Amino acid sequence: MNKLWINTFWNLDHKIYIYVIMDFRRILLFMFLAMGMALNGQYTKEFKRIFFDADYLMETGFYEEAFNRYKNLLTLDPGNNNILFHCGACCLNIPGNEKQAIHYLKEAAEGVTLSYREKSHKEPGAPVLTYFMLGQAYHLNYQFSEALMEYTEYLEMGTNQDQLQLEYARMQIEACERAASIEQTLPAFEFQGVLEHFEDDLPSCSNPVISGDGDILIFLVDYPSDKKIMMSTRSDSLWSRPRVINSEIGMVGETYPVSLSYDGKDLYLVHQYYSHSDIFVSHLQGKRWTEAEALGYNINGRTSESHASISRDGQSLYFTTDVRGGEGSFDIYVSHLTEKGDWGEAVNLGPTINTPYEEHTPFISNNDSILFFSSQGHATIGGVDVFHSSLQSDGTWSEPDHLGYPVNTTGDDLFFNPGWDEMESYYAVRREDDPTSSTINMAMKIEYEEEELLAIHIPDTEVPVQEEEEEAVAVETTQSEQEATPVIPVVVVTEATLIEPPNTDEIEMVLNQREPEAEPTFVAQASDPIETPAPEARPAFANELITSIPFLTNKYEMGPAAQLEAERIAEVMVYHPESTVELTGYTDITGDADFNMILSQYRAEKIAEYLEMRGIGRKRMKVDGKGVSDPLAINKFSDGSDATLGRYLNRTVKVRILGMLPIDSKLSGLYIPVNLKPGEDGTPSPEREYHYTIQLKAARMPILSSRFQDIKVT
To answer: Which end of the chain offers a freer environment for a tag, N or C, measured as fewer CB atoms within 10 Å?
Structure first.
């Protein structure tokens, strides 16, 4: 009995041992699966939290903070096209990050899906809007051909998108085309720093407002910790050290100046709350500002009022608001002061000024007759541009005119303050060494001298002419031995006058002519057919291409025209990797000679840096600076008068590309009018100043000199 019990116990113990081992394995498997689920749950929860945190920051305008969070999400899920899209969208709104936007959006475009789920942290694809934003990124970087491709792709793919957004994409295609021709116009403004002596203490400045006498300047300074409103006064042409006035007006945080009355005693401000913004006013009493007060209900509502400009007489207030019932999302309104001293009912300025899109930062100037404002919906060259419109005698506004570059760029150009008489305009311009910050500049309109109409009398002469179609004219003859050859008819001119229209390089010839004298007529035999020479083959390539890149006075940063031409040069060199380039900087005679030498070298180096960024190796470049020596054009005429166009042509970098290159490239070229070409020693050449060129025909390709060998000049 005892033996049986022991045996049974052993078997029982063995079974228990087996069951324990099996259960232990199940427990390990369960623990492993549970840990995996816990880790996955923790990852999803953390991803979701960061995603919606970033989404909120992006919607409230904190793009840098949102960008940092989206980058964190990429470490958790690399290659997520939805996160790549959001990274690119943030970069588009961070100054200086436009090139990064291309990187993120180009990658996100590989995963565009038509079934995109907006605001879903589980969405791995990118929306169709990616194409539009990638087009914007290229547009901002002056890569217009790439921008056009992406805008077009968006229009083709985004048929179900918002119609207003699709129309805006079409407008951006037109803006690209306008921007591409910007190099054909001279710059309308030059910039000059206002507070250069204090710039080390002012990290980034914006929102300049000025009094009528030009002696009080108030602006916003964006410090790393917060924003401060500062004031400077001018005495004997010198600006005082700016002082902070936030404590006086009793407002901190997102508060910024928008307008200063003509007498300099009323300061209008905008304060940004979490959900909206309102307009306030503070008054100068003695040397201190009073605590700011909000304007009445006819100005401030439950909507966002983002800007205001007070008229010269103080009786009218032009302001922007997103109140419903307007032409677009932000419109410009005007309100007039009532007899009781309150602001009356606001009136929309109408569709001539306001568009279905956004209008911002209006400034009334020139004795309250000209309105300057920024618009997204008028004919821009990209983003938001500055326009001006005149108040007409019937109370309506004229069609807005584009202010031109360099005030307007392919980005968003806001808060151009024309001053009270347009003589001193103020504008915040990005620093050339740090595009994330800006400085207060005076924008000075460039006045180009209009050349007088020049007429030169030509005595009786014979001038060979040819029809534009360039068809050969056969001689008719009855003599079979007479060889038929093409000829150019000769016009007998009794007298002629050369006319040079102002501001052009073309000459118009006014001819008084009589019919050619009658000559014998011959008819050719049928056995002797007339042979027309085959057209000469035109070369498709050249050994060198020469162009130029313009710069503003005393500046070496690249403006819109410079970036556009530099991009075209880069495209030529990328497609022709055997090519090399010579970059030679020049300046006009403005300023010190030593400074100009350094400036010319900086200009050439700036182009070299851009080409290097585009993948052109330094070994393919030769960089030099000439300063004011060996100018491309004269800076003054022989009588000492200023050669405005000559100085403009000297503020440049001459580009000489060597290799087997296509003649039909899109480079602007370099042309120096004969009357502006300097003598051998670089000085004006009087005998050339009255030398003009007559354009007989425009051609797309170079015309070989052999085409003119049979022409006799009498």
So the answer is: N
Indicate the domain borders of the chain. 2-184, 189-445, 454-535, 542-708
Count Cβ atoms below 10 Å from residue 451 Cβ, excluding itself: 13
Residues 6+ apart with CB under 8 A from 109: 126, 130, 131, 134, 150
pTM as predicted: 0.61
For 189-445, give the CATH class: mainly beta
Q: What angle do CA 525, 527, 530 make, to 5 degrees?
A: 75
Question: 180 pairs with which residues across the strands?
Answer: none
Q: List the one residue out of 240, 214, 243, 211 whose CA is nearest residue 229.
A: 243
Q: Show the beta-strand stretches assigned E in 369-450.
A: 370-375, 385-390, 401-402, 425-430, 438-445
Mean pLDDT of 547-558: 86
Beta-carbon count within 10 A of 92 CB: 20
Parallel/antiparallel/unpaired status of strands 227-235 and 216-222? antiparallel
- Residue 32 phi, psi dihedral angles, 5° rounding: -60, -45
Residue 684 has pLDDT above 70, yes or no: no
pLDDT tens by residue, 487-537: 444 444 444 444 444 444 444 444 444 444 444 444 444 444 445 455 444
Contact by Cβ (8 Å): 357, 376: yes
Q: Is-contact 227 253, C-beta < 8 A? A: yes
CATH fourth-level superfamily of 2-184: Tetratricopeptide repeat domain (1.25.40.10)
Give the closest residue to 206 by CA, choosing from 190, 191, 192, 217.
217
Distances (CA, A) of 478 to 111, 352, 487, 489, 533: 77, 71, 18, 20, 22
Q: What is the pLDDT of residue 527?
A: 45
What is the amino acid identity at position 624?
D
Q: What is the pLDDT of residue 511?
A: 44
Integer Cα distance of 625 and 250 in angstroms: 53
Which residue type, as a one-letter code, is found at position 390? S
pLDDT top residue among 206 and 703: 206
